[in-house]
TrEMBL record:
One family name in Pfam for this protein: Bot1p
A cellular-component GO term for this protein: mitochondrial small ribosomal subunit
Protein name, as recorded: Ribosomal protein S35, mitochondrial
Biological processes, Gene Ontology terms: mitochondrial translation
Length: 321
């Protein structure tokens, strides 16, 4: 606000008059300083800066051959305040390339490679598919995110595979999921003289439940171990295992081809300029006991599922557990 100073001069006793010219006083402006304020750090930040200059100097740069966590070099616990969390190891780039060469170039089966390196079947299949995509991108001169991949792998514990040595397994490969039928408490009467096997246990839980020996991903490994226990040489049992898994994969491939051929035979295709229409023959009467069979019309549109039910359906048991 501008303040105009008006001074009153006393001319005579009891008489006051304004001066001919009033004094203009400049406005009082706020005093802003251009000097930078003093940096103020909290106690925690000051302690961190001090630690970074002394003990933390070794953590500025990561080690290319191992992790550089606060809990120790080469460890798998990145968070000091959460010791229960362990960072799982990942396969390095050379291990993935070796898996791809075993399957695609040397022609080994996925089960054989899984058993040799101790890698899950699904992971072996995923590595082969992703490697095929990578090779295709390289052939088409598409850019790859190699710097990003290298940076991520440098911060994680990795698993190396030496093709000329016996390597430690990367992960369990013959584990099975807990089936819901086996979660019930069951009392099954049997005679003491009878040898109760895993086959009998599976039938006790449910008539259609397979035993653990048949539900594992590698049932051929169990047979190989049995042959070794019976006195067969290890190399001969290993060769028989490779032949067995090759026969298994061949049968699975033949079934898949036959299924695809059957689906193609049952499908009528009508090509237009923009779309391809596919027609199949369905019997609307075969809808199952509840009318929600998964093999009839409407299964892909959510008909068999109760995701949108309002909770007023009466659930009547149709089988005795």
């Amino acid at each position: 606000m501008l303040a105009v100073a008006s001074s009153i001069t006393r001319a005579s006793v009891g008489v006051a008059r304004w001066p001919t010219q009033s004094l203009q006083v400049p406005a009082a402006a706020a005093s802003f300083s251009t000097t930078a304020s003093r940096p103020k750090f909290s106690k925690g930040r000051r302690m961190f800066r001090e630690w970074e200059r002394r003990q933390g100097r070794s953590y500025r740069r990561h080690n290319d051959n191992a992790t550089n966590y606060l809990t120790g070099r080469g460890g798998d616990r990145p968070f000091p305040l959460n010791p229960e969390f362990r960072s799982p190891r990942v396969l390095d780039e050379k291990a993935r390339e070796l898996v791809w060469e075993k399957v695609m170039r040397e022609g080994e089966t996925i089960k054989a490679v899984s058993a040799e390196f101790g890698i899950d079947i699904r992971r072996v299949a995923a590595i082969v598919r992703l490697k095929e995509v990578e090779k295709d991108w390289i052939a088409k001169n598409k850019p790859l995110a190699k710097p990003y991949s290298k940076a991520v792998l440098s911060m994680l514990p990795t698993h190396h595979i030496n093709p000329n040595e016996q390597n430690a397994p990367y992960e369990p490969i013959n584990e099975i999921h807990v089936h819901p039928y086996t979660m019930q408490q069951l009392f099954w009467p049997t005679s003491e003289s009878r040898h109760f096997t895993r086959e009998d246990a599976a039938k006790a839980f449910h008539p259609t439940l397979l035993s653990a020996d048949k539900r594992v991903p590698h049932p051929e490994l169990i047979q190989m171990e049995r042959e070794v226990e019976q006195g067969r040489p290890v190399w001969e049992a290993s060769e028989r295992f490779k032949q067995a898994v090759m026969e298994t994969e061949r049968n699975a491939a033949e079934k898949q081809i036959a299924k695809a051929a059957h689906e193609e035979k049952q499908t009528t295709r009508v090509n237009t300029e923009r779309f391809e229409f596919r027609f199949k023959q369905f019997n609307s009467e075969n809808v199952g006991p509840k009318g929600r069979s998964r093999n009839v019309v409407g299964w892909r549109y959510g008909t068999p599922l109760d995701d949108r039910s309002k909770g007023h359906q009466i659930k009547i048991p149709i089988s005795v557990p």
